[in-house]
């Protein structure tokens, strides 16, 4: 990637992260980047969202024990 592409990619992730915070998704930058990458690779976004929700439920259940 050239410098302009890197800058544009960073700006895009910055905007996506701001949107993520506004929507109170609880995703950090790294997790958001992984989700974006998975979607770009063809993963169904609704299925991915369902997996994230389920992982959060499981995490809460484990931490409550």
UniProtKB/TrEMBL annotation:
GO cellular component: gamma-tubulin ring complex; interphase microtubule organizing center; spindle
GO terms for biological process, alphabetical: gamma-tubulin complex localization; microtubule nucleation by interphase microtubule organizing center; mitotic spindle assembly
Pfam families named in the record: MOZART1 (PF12554)
Annotated signal sequence range: none
InterPro entries: MZT1
UniProt keyword Cytoplasm present: yes
Name of this protein: Mitotic-spindle organizing protein 1
Source organism of this protein record: Capsaspora owczarzaki (strain ATCC 30864)
């Amino acid at each position: 990637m050239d410098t302009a592409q890197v800058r544009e990619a960073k700006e895009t992730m910055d905007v996506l992260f701001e949107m993520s915070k506004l929507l109170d998704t609880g995703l950090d930058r790294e997790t958001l980047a992984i989700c974006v990458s998975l979607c770009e690779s063809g993963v169904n976004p609704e299925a991915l969202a369902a997996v994230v929700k389920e992982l959060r439920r499981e995490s809460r259940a484990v931490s409550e024990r």
